[in-house]
Amino acid sequence: MSTSSDRRRNARMRRKLAIAAVIAVSIALAIGCVEIDSVRAQNAEEASPIYGVTIPDGYRKWEFIAPALEGDPLNELRAVMGNTVAMDAYRDSTLPFPDGTVLVKLAWKRMQSAEFEPASVPGAATTVQVMVKDSKKYASSGGWGFGRFINGKPADVAQHETCFACHEARVQGHDYVFTRYAP
């Protein structure tokens, strides 16, 4: 049987544990806020002008949508990757793409293979381009935000001013997206 002194001792222990838990949670929240502010500051520097789009973390692990070969004057090999929302939309032939869709296009200079003359291989990386679907935030650009990055840094305002105009002129009927799914 427990005595009254055991109950008091247990009550004191529970209070101490509760205080320690509150302190631990407070410290964790404080550290988390500092880290979030640090990420926001970093992302602001790395965001595309006009749209505020950044290169998404982990995009190289996303699913492959399709390759592309861009002729002269760019002469590039390209690969387009999509997040889960994008892949579900492609597989279900959903247009317009739902909000939350993110597409990332990687591009490299096209080089002739040293091992097999008729083949092309990736050379130097040229750009990473990102499209983010948010129909409210980007209502004036067909629901899409654009980011063009060279060596991990956003290209200038002039380059970003051409994004939507090009997509609007050529692929308005496919929700402003050039890439078709290559199953």
Can you characterise this structure?
There is one protein chain. With 183 residues, this protein is of the alpha+beta class. The protein has two domains: 1-46; 59-174, 3-Layer(bba) Sandwich (Chalcone isomerase). It has four helices and six strands, in the order αββαββββαα. It has helices at residues 4-46, 84-91, 157-161, 163-171; strands at residues 63-70, 76-82, 102-112, 120-133, 144-150, 153-154. A six-stranded antiparallel beta sheet has the order 1-2-3-4-5-6. The longest helix is centred in the first third of the chain and has 43 residues, at 4-46. It starts with a helix and ends in a 12-residue tail after the last helix. Residues 31-42 have low confidence and may be disordered.
- CATH class category of the largest domain: Alpha Beta
What is the tally of beta strands? 6
How are helices and strands ordered from N to C? HEEHEEEEHH
The CATH H-level homologous superfamily of the largest domain: Cytochrome P460
Q: What topology, given as strand order, has the largest sheet?
A: 1-2-3-4-5-6
Could you estimate the helical fraction of the residues in percent? Answer: 25-40%
CATH topology type of the largest domain: Chalcone isomerase
Q: What is the secondary structure topology, with strand pairs?
A:
Blueprint: H1 4-46, E1 63-70, E2 76-82, H2 84-91, E3 102-112, E4 120-133, E5 144-150, E6 153-154, H3 157-161, H4 163-171
Antiparallel strand pairs: 1-2, 2-3, 3-4, 4-5, 5-6
